[in-house]
């Protein structure tokens, strides 16, 4: 029985997706604003930047107006002027789109199952594209009178690192979410291990932000997550660590207490970048190892089946063509 429901027109479909992108960008931007440290507008972790890069990768570049509208809605009440808000929104759109086009030209695949894809996401998406948005946005603030010219580079640094961390932590999770399939059966031991990993990640994230500095304690947990729970587990753990690190750095807690704001952010973002890169790279290497093992196992099975198929025929042929021992036939004939 066929459904008689009326299908949406292409224009309506496009509009609905653009509205969804706008809502998603605006919602994640509101989360980032909660951590804002410059003009209540620039945050050391900007999840909306991760959403902005994921949109052209997953949906296509033709839905870019959703990014622009989301940025407009986010910045319209923050100012400093309408023109500055428009320029900031254009920069927030232009950076991810340029990053996407460069990544696509270099053969980027959204499955993130190859190490070159991770390198492209980090170098082009998280470092290159976000730098464009940060420079345009900071320039708009200075030109619009919302920021002193002397604060250009410190503000641009916070903007750039915040966007980069948003790409590094949020974009991979969105790319993985599209192909995530929940397992049918999960053993009790597996649930217990996941719960233990979650509690452990929370514990080391808090411990890393205390004095004396104990930042290194997070890496064994990240390795555990990557080896046992692959990319999803490692990325979620790294996101948790980054959130707690930014919270401590923004408030000058623990090892970040004796530094200026810009210095604190630089130290925190360097640590967060190391955490994110470790989680993403190691989990991708583990995924490649699993895939190579599966391919070798499959090839071995096929070879075994071919040997089992050929062996009986080869045995029969050998029996029919076995040469006689010299002299035996002659002795019988004599």
From TrEMBL:
The chain crosses the membrane at residues 12-33, 45-64, 76-103, 115-137, 157-176, 236-254, 266-287. Pfam families: MASE1. One of its GO terms (cellular component) is plasma membrane. Residues 20-289 form the MASE1 domain. PROSITE patterns: PROKAR_LIPOPROTEIN (PS51257). Keywords: Cell membrane, Membrane, Transmembrane, Transmembrane helix. It is a multi-pass membrane protein. Its main location: membrane. It is found in: Cell membrane. This is MASE1 domain-containing protein. It comes from Amycolatopsis orientalis. The lineage of its organism: Bacteria, Bacillati, Actinomycetota, Actinomycetes, Pseudonocardiales.
């Amino acid at each position: 029985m066929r459904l008689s429901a009326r299908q949406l027109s292409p224009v309506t479909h496009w509009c609905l997706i653009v509205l969804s992108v706008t809502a998603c960008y605006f919602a994640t931007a509101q989360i980032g604003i909660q951590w804002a440290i410059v003009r209540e507008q620039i945050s050391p972790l900007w999840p909306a930047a991760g959403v902005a890069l994921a949109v052209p990768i997953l949906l296509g570049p033709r839905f870019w107006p959703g990014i622009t509208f989301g940025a407009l809605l986010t910045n319209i009440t923050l100012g400093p002027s309408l023109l500055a808000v428009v320029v900031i929104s254009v920069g927030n759109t232009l950076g991810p789109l340029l990053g996407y086009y460069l990544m696509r030209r270099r053969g980027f695949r959204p499955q993130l199952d190859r190490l070159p894809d991770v390198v492209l996401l980090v170098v082009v998406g998280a470092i290159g594209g976000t730098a464009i948005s940060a420079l345009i946005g900071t320039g708009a603030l200075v030109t619009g009178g919302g920021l002193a010219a002397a604060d250009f580079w410190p503000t641009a640094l916070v903007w750039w690192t915040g966007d980069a961390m948003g790409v590094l932590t949020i974009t991979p999770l969105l790319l993985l979410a599209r192909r995530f399939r929940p397992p049918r059966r999960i053993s009790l031991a597996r649930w217990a291990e996941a719960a233990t990993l979650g509690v452990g990640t929370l514990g080391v994230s808090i411990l890393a932000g205390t004095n004396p500095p104990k930042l290194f304690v997070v890496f064994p947990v990240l390795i555990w997550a990557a080896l046992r729970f692959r990319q999803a587990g490692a990325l979620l753990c790294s996101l948790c660590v980054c959130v707690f690190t930014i919270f401590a750095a923004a408030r000058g807690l623990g090892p970040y207490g004796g530094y200026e704001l810009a210095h604190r952010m630089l130290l925190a973002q360097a640590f967060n970048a190391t955490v994110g890169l470790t989680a993403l790279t190691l989990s991708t290497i583990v995924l490649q190892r699993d895939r190579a093992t599966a391919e070798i196992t499959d090839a071995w099975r096929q070879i075994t089946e071919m040997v089992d198929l050929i062996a009986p025929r080869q045995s029969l042929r050998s029996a029919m063509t076995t040469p006689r021992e010299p002299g035996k036939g002659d002795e019988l004939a004599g």
